[in-house]
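Quick check before the chapter quiz. The format below is the same one you will see on the exam, so make sure you can read both the input and the output lines.
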Amino acid sequence: MEGSKQNAGEPCSSWRVVPAVPGDAAVMARFWVRLMDEEAPPLFRAGVEGLSRAEKAFDRMLAQRGSYRGFLLVPVAASSAEMSPEPAGFILGSVYERLYGEPSRAGNIMHWYVLPGMRGRGEGERLYHALMDWFRTEEVETVEVMARAEPSRTVAWTRRGFSVVLDLLVMRAPWSSDDREGAR
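Here is the expected output.
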């Protein structure tokens, strides 16, 4: 996989990127809850049943290999006392055909999370490149991502070649309960 290759002169990583399978849904759901806890946009949260619902959804998604693909950042070897045998991050994307208009084949970066202690080492980049490699093999024509509306995030995504093309406007439905008790 191109996204996990080391370039000449780079230190060898003790982590590798592997494709996720339905059995990985539980760990991915735990990462998703952490992602929501750290940076959920206004009006969104994991919720009381978020972990179990995310696990079920990820399990269903990962079983649909033609439409969804996930990747995990896992230790090369779990022999070091410092290294956890648990994954340190994940990325999840989807591919779909637009019902009308062009370009018709799109890739969507749904979730991307790396544990705070692993950030800034380039490991998250390896996850990103693994997903982009899959998008390339699936011959997507555009790649989309929904990101929290913050200048730093906009700058980070535009540096990757993304353009802001839409604003996502969200409101709490007037008839909906805003009971946040027990929310994660």
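If your answer matched, good. Strands lie at 15-19, 68-75, 89-97, 105-114, 142-145.
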